[in-house]
C-alpha cells in the first residue's frame, strides 16, 4: 500500500451490550483480518462500570490481535470512560460533541499513550479547531447519529477536505454507503471510516474498501 493511502477505521453499531459480545467479537475478527484496519470505534450501550470493563475485555482482542487500535465510545455515559478503557485494555476513547474543557480533562487523564478521538464537528468549524487545540489525536467527520440518521455526505466531504488541507491533526472521514469511499479517500483524510452496515458481518466489504483506498493513495 502507498504511504499516502488512507487507512480504514471501523465503526461498530451503536449500543453493543454483553448479549451481543460473541457476535460482535466474531465480526470484528473477520473484518480486521480482511484488510488494513487501523482502528475500531466500539460504540457500547451504557451500563455499570464492571460490566463495561468486562465487555471491552471480550471485544478488544478481536481487533488488537490483528493490528487495529480499539477506542471506547459510550454515548450518554456519565461514568469514568477513561477508567473503563484503561481497565478493559483498550487503546483509548472516542467522544462526540465534547466541549474544549471536557476534551482537555480527558487528555490530561489518558496515560500510557492512550488515544483521544472526537467527532460531531459538522455543524461548527470553530468546535473542530477547539478540539485540535485540546490536543485530540484525531477528529472524525461524519458517522451516523445515535438515532440512525445519516449526515449530509457533501458536508462530510467538505469538512474533511477543509481540515486535511489546513491542519496537522489526523482526521477520519466516515462513509455510510460504499459509493462514498472513493470520494472520501480523495479528501486527504488520513483515515476513511466505515459505518457498521458496510462491514459488520461482511468482511469482503473491508477487502474491497481497502483496495479502493490503496488505489486512492497511488493517485494522491
Report on the architecture of this protein.
It is globular, with a radius of gyration of 16 Å. An 8-stranded parallel barrel has the order 1-2-3-4-5-6-7-8, surrounded by 7 helices. The chain contains 9 helices and 8 strands. It has helices at 21-34, 49-64, 81-88, 100-109, 125-133, 153-166, 181-185, 196-199, 203-219; strands at 7-11, 37-43, 69-73, 92-96, 115-119, 138-141, 171-175, 191-194. It starts with 6 loop residues before the first strand and ends with a helix. It has a single domain, classed as Aldolase class I (TIM Barrel), CATH 3.20.20.70. α1 (21-34) packs parallel to α2 (49-64). α5 links the parallel β5 and β6 (138-141). Helices cover 44% and strands 18% of the residues. It is of the alpha/beta class. The model has no long low-confidence stretch (mean pLDDT 95).
Q: What's the CATH first level?
A: Alpha Beta
| CATH fold node name | TIM Barrel
Kindly state the mean pLDDT as a whole number?
95
- Count of strand segments: 8
Q: Could you spell the SSE succession in H and E letters?
A: EHEHEHEHEHEHEHEHH
Range of strand content? 15-25%
The helix content, as a percent range, equals 40-55%
Unreliable spans are none
Kindly give the count of domains: 1
User: What is the CATH superfamily?
Assistant: Aldolase class I
Question: What structural class do the secondary elements suggest?
Answer: alpha/beta
Shape-level CATH architecture: Alpha-Beta Barrel
- The geometry reads as globular
- Please report the number of helical segments: 9
Radius of gyration over C-alpha positions, nearest whole angstrom? 16 Å
Main-sheet strand order equals 1-2-3-4-5-6-7-8
User: In whole angstroms, how far apart are the ends?
Assistant: 12 Å
Amino acid at each position: 500500500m502507498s504511504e499516502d493511502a488512507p487507512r480504514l477505521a471501523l465503526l461498530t453499531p451503536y449500543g453493543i451490550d454483553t448479549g451481543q459480545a460473541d457476535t460482535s467479537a466474531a465480526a470484528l475478527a473477520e473484518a480486521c483480518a480482511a484488510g488494513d484496519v487501523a482502528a475500531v470505534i466500539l460504540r457500547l450501550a451504557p451500563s455499570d462500570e464492571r460490566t463495561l470493563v468486562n465487555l471491552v475485555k471480550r471485544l478488544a482482542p478481536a481487533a488488537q490481535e490483528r493490528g487495529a487500535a480499539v477506542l471506547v465510545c459510550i454515548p450518554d455515559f456519565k461514568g469514568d470512560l477513561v477508567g473503563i478503557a484503561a481497565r478493559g485494555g483498550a487503546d483509548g476513547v472516542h467522544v462526540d460533541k465534547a466541549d474544549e474543557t471536557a476534551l482537555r480533562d480527558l487528555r490530561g487523564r489518558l496515560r500510557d499513550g492512550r488515544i483521544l478521538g472526537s467527532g460531531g464537528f459538522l455543524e461548527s468549524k470553530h468546535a473542530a479547531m477547539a478540539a485540535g487545540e485540546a490536543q485530540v489525536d484525531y477528529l472524525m467527520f461524519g458517522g451516523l447519529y445515535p438515532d440512525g440518521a445519516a449526515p449530509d455526505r457533501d458536508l462530510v466531504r467538505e469538512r474533511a477536505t477543509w481540515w486535511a488541507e489546513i491542519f496537522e491533526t489526523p482526521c477520519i472521514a466516515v462513509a455510510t454507503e460504499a459509493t462514498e469511499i472513493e470520494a472520501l479517500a480523495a479528501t486527504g483524510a488520513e483515515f476513511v471510516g466505515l459505518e457498521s452496515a458496510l462491514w459488520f458481518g461482511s468482511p469482503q466489504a473491508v477487502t474491497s474498501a481497502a483496495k479502493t483506498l490503496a488505489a486512492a493513495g497511488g493517485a494522491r
